[in-house]
Amino acid sequence: MATLDELSQEKQKLAERLARLDADRTRLAQQLEELEIAERVLSRFGMARPAERRGRGRPVRTAPVSSGRQPRAAVKPTSPLSLSDATLKAVEAHQGGATAAEVMNYLSRELGMTVRPNHLGIALQRHRRAGRLESRDSRWFLPHSQSNMPSAAAG
């Protein structure tokens, strides 16, 4: 029976220790929450955050990571045309209409422009809403009235 008493005592000690640890964890969680609230208040009033911590212990990056590439802002467009004008020129170059992929290929191949697909889509839709382009069967066309006008106006 001595071993049964020892086991119950050991179990009691572990239960007490677990209760203390739970109480400590709760207390520390409350302190952390109070510190985060104080940090948010200080940041609202213009005081800088501590540089060594951000959020829940993630370190703040002090210097940008060099990936070997130049930033996108440093890239200069090689074509003097705007995306809007270049899009119209690309559609005009395809007599039977052009898909968005064909327009993008034309812009990169003929004009040396790098265009993101969503930006091209926005430009195409803007021209469609303005009546400068028509969309039929997933192809883009100049309107019938406009397709004849540029050649007449140029001459």
- Radius of gyration from the alpha-carbon trace, in angstroms: 33 Å
Distance between the termini: 113 Å
The CATH topology name of the largest domain reads Arc Repressor Mutant, subunit A
Described by strand count, sense and barrel closure, the largest sheet is:
2 strands, antiparallel
Number of helices: 5
Give the overall shape, derived from the CA principal axes: elongated
Kindly estimate the percentage of residues that lie in beta strands according to DSSP. under 5%
Total separate domains: 2
Largest sheet, order of strands side by side?
1-2
| Number of distinct beta strands | 2
Give the rounded overall mean pLDDT: 80
Helix coverage percent of residues? 55-70%
CATH architecture of the largest domain: Orthogonal Bundle
What's the helix and strand layout?
Elements: H1 2-44, H2 83-93, H3 100-110, H4 117-130, E1 134-136, E2 139-141, H5 144-154
Antiparallel strand pairs: 1-2
Helix pairs in contact: 2-3, 2-4
Describe the structure concisely.
The chain has 155 residues and is mainly alpha-helical.
Task: Describe the model.
58% of the residues lie in helices and 4% in strands. The protein has 155 residues and is mainly alpha-helical. It has two domains: 8-56; 79-154, Arc Repressor Mutant, subunit A, CATH 1.10.10. Strands 1-2 form a two-stranded antiparallel sheet. β1 and β2 form a beta hairpin. α2 crosses α3 (100-110) and α2 (83-93) crosses α4 (117-130). It is elongated and about 100 Å long. The termini are far apart. Residues 151-155 have low confidence and may be disordered.
